[in-house]
Amino acid sequence: MAVIWKGQVRNLLKADLHIHTEYSIDCATPLNKLIERCLKLGVNCIAIADHGTVEGALILKDIAPFTVIVAEEILTPDGEVMGMFLKETIPSGITVSEVISRIRAQNGLVCIPHPFDIFRPSALGSKILEKVADQIDIVEVFNARTLPFQNQNKAMSFAEEHILGKSAGSDAHTLPEIGNAYVEMPDFNNKNDFLEALAHGKIHGRKTNPLTHFASLKNRIIKRFG
Fold it and tell me: Under DSSP, is residue 169 helix (H, G, I), strand (E, B) or coil?
């Protein structure tokens, strides 16, 4: 499907902007199987945001027959920050401010995954987010793995208050999760074009079964002790 955007005919993307691969410590999804699953579902744009590495994303970008954004979830003492449009891995363990500086040094975008999630120790909270709000480009306003029983609109309100881009992703750690959340948006040519296209996107999504989190735990145990 195509749309007229900025005076041009652009393909309409089904963009799942948060997916993990076997390069994450808590995921076992092979790159070839991920490609097959995306093609089956019509997902034609993905952001690979493995924990602590861009290695898998760089490989997938070269072999996938659709758009792959090289991203990474970087763990800081305050929680995770996602860098998008990266060229190399940013180390975990450094401060949020240092992560943002290193993302900027690569001409990347700063995205905040699953913010305010009270069930995830890796989620950034209000205090640090308000402190760095003017340095953020995108907020993940729908994460399919976010558990219920909490304020589901807080991320959206934060993004709107600070006039930030709004993304969505499955946060898939298993094949069946891919496409559980995505943004329907115009195709783009570069990171700046991406931000504009994202602003014209429409978010779709459904919650993943909470039991799926046990698959991540299992993968983490196998990789660490197997």
Answer: strand
Q: Is 61 exposed, middle or buried (0-12, 13-18, 19+ CB in 10 A)?
A: middle
For Cα atoms 173, 26, 18, give the angle at the middle one, nearest 5 degrees. Answer: 40
Look at the alpha carbons of 78, 79, 80, 81 in this order and tell me if their dihedral is positive or negative.
negative
Residues with Cβ < 8 Å from 101, sequence gap 6 or more? none
The CATH number of domain 10-221 is 3.20.20.140: yes
3-state DSSP assignment of residue 78: coil
**pTM of the predicted structure, to 2 decimals:** 0.94
Domain limits of the chain? Answer: 10-221
The β-bridge relationship of strands 165-169 and 138-143 is parallel
Enumerate residues 6+ apart whose C-beta is below 8 A from 144: 169, 170, 171, 172, 177, 180, 181, 205, 206, 207, 208
55-63 vs 31-41: helix axis angle to the nearest 10? 50
| 138, 160 Cβ separation under 8 angstroms | no
- Amino acid identity for residue 205 in this structure: G
- For the segment 59-97, what is each residue's pLDDT rounded down to a tens digit? 999 999 999 999 999 999 999 999 999 999 999 999 999
Sign, CA dihedral 194-61-98-172, equals positive
- How many angstroms from the chain centroid is the CA of residue 59? 17
Cβ pair 70, 55 in contact under 8 A? no
